[in-house]
Design brief:
10 helices; Aminopeptidase; BioF2-like_GNAT_dom; alpha+beta; eight-stranded mixed beta sheet; GNAT family N-acetyltransferase
């Protein structure tokens, strides 16, 4: 248990090496805010450092000589649990006893997370740099039907679907399906995508989402029955999340990816009645065709000027700012 000194001394900060403390603290959240997600990361080898003050928690880990978010590349966002500014500042101050540097990303700000975090660390005496580090493309359905949404898509997309839709068949699973997942892994291996980062963790995540009925696992088959495109989505709390998609390069002329995407958009809009579709991070051109809103993600880099280990990085930061000001 750590009690920060000074004006925030009344806010006790505790540290935990387990994510179980979040079980009662997080509800009605997205897939990357739940204790179950952080437990998967811990089981995959990351060591949690959960900093808590009252009902506010930061899911952290020690890595690369600093404190970083407990996250991996599958997560769309990372943010604090709880928004009390006094408690956030208390945690920020207490973390000065743990590291000379705290770097947090990719933090959203449409909910105020980046603003609150950066202010909390400044209040606690850190030197804070906030930079745009990624993009998040989303679609606000705004009460539209799929047909109304589709009518607003670029002409080439609509033409492609009209010409190619009948050339493939589509199945969508709302429970984890072993054969469909095997199809996904086979398709991914022959796609344009880089090698899968942690296929075991991804499968365990998909199995957990399938057990609750949140999964939407789509597979498109060519006329000869070969699976040629696959997509892994989840749906909860009015939002559909597009996690993974891939198609076989050898089947590109079928445009199976477009047909499968359209089928999944129709499913989550017309049947699941979602309010938002989240295409994750990255600025791929095809995401702009399907989505309508571009939201920034931020990296918040905090250095403690009282610690000599932070001075080289602070000097480098100051030099970079001076060069940009020329």
């Amino acid at each position: 248990m750590v009690t920060p000194k000074g004006e925030m001394a009344s806010s006790a900060v505790s540290y935990h090496g387990t994510v179980n403390v979040l079980q009662a603290a997080v509800a009605d959240c997205g897939p990357f805010d739940r204790a179950e997600w952080f437990a998967l990361l811990a089981e995959a080898g990351q060591e949690p450092l959960v900093a808590q003050a009252g009902d506010v928690s930061l899911m952290l880990t020690l890595a690369n000589g600093r404190i970083e978010p407990l996250r991996n590349w599958y997560a769309f966002t990372w943010r604090p649990h709880g928004d009390n500014p006094v408690l956030l500042a208390a945690i920020a101050q207490a973390l000065r006893s743990r590291a000379h540097r705290v770097t947090l990303w990719p933090v959203p700000d449409e909910d105020g997370s980046a603003t609150r975090l950066s202010q909390a660390f400044r209040t606690a005496g850190w030197r804070v740099s906030v930079e745009h580090c990624d993009r998040n493309h989303v679609l606000a359905v705004s009460g539209r039907s799929f047909a109304e949404y589709w009518a607003g898509r670029p002409g080439p997309m609509r033409t492609t679907l009209k010409r190619k839709a009948k050339k493939v068949s589509v199945s969508i699973h709302d429970r984890f399906d072993t054969a469909a997942w095997a199809d996904y892994e086979s398709i991914y291996a022959e796609s344009w995508k880089p090698e899968e980062g942690d296929p075991v963790l991804l499968r365990r995540f998909a199995e957990a989402e399938g057990a609750t009925g949140r999964i939407r696992l789509g597979v498109a088959h060519a006329p000869d029955g070969e699976p040629v495109a696959a997509q892994f989505w989840t749906v909860e709390n009015g939002t559909a999340y597009i996690h993974k998609l891939a198609h076989r390069e050898s089947a590109r002329p079928l445009s199976a990816g477009t047909t499968l995407s359209a089928a999944l958009f129709e499913r989550v809009i017309d049947r699941d009645r979602v309010d938002l579709i989240d295409f994750g991070t990255g600025d791929d051109a095809y995401k702009r065709d399907w989505m309508e809103i571009d939201r920034p993600r931020y990296r918040i880099d905090c250095l403690d000027p009282r610690q000599p280990r932070a001075w080289p990085a602070l000097a480098k930061r100051m030099l970079a700012r001076a060069m940009r000001g020329r």
